[in-house]
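cron nightly-structures :: item 1 of 1
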Amino acid sequence: MTAPAVSADVHCVKIGKRALHQLRVALERETGPQATLVLREAGFAGGEALYHAFTQWTNERYGLGSPQDLDVKFLTEALSGFFKDSGWGDVATTNLSSSIMAFDSPDWAEAESGSAEYPSCHFSTGMLADFFTRIAGTQMAVMEVECRSHGDPHCRYLVGGPDALTYVFERMSQGVGYAQVMTTSPR
């Protein structure tokens, strides 16, 4: 079975990975720390179109009216197929707790191996926050905790409610690794 193409009629455009990388470099050079916020805001603005493309993709692939009609046991398969077909990369999801999901990619498009001191897929963080908010029908937050740009073997985003991710962030800022937070979290 041939995978359906992601159609451009949902206001999506394809750009090369190199353009995303250069955008980050240029913004960091011109705006310094503000680049993070600018990229997240731009990514968040792109989440709606990504969601509509996913809606179209799941309709063509599974015959569903909306992604919310997708059985949860097929969510990882659907996300993996969609993001790969869209050019973002291979993805897998793992439930880390009852309120936090890991979204992992060994070849995420925004990451540029070894080019950053910290996780730096800021555009993706914003885009995925809006995308998952639309899928869940409630406010979701996304935090990148591992990144190929930082030298990690994959990009790992934590996806969960704002309160849950705020708790993880606060514990991490106290020196506790996110994996340890997941095993000791009361959430």
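cron nightly-structures :: done
The longest helix spans residues 34-62.
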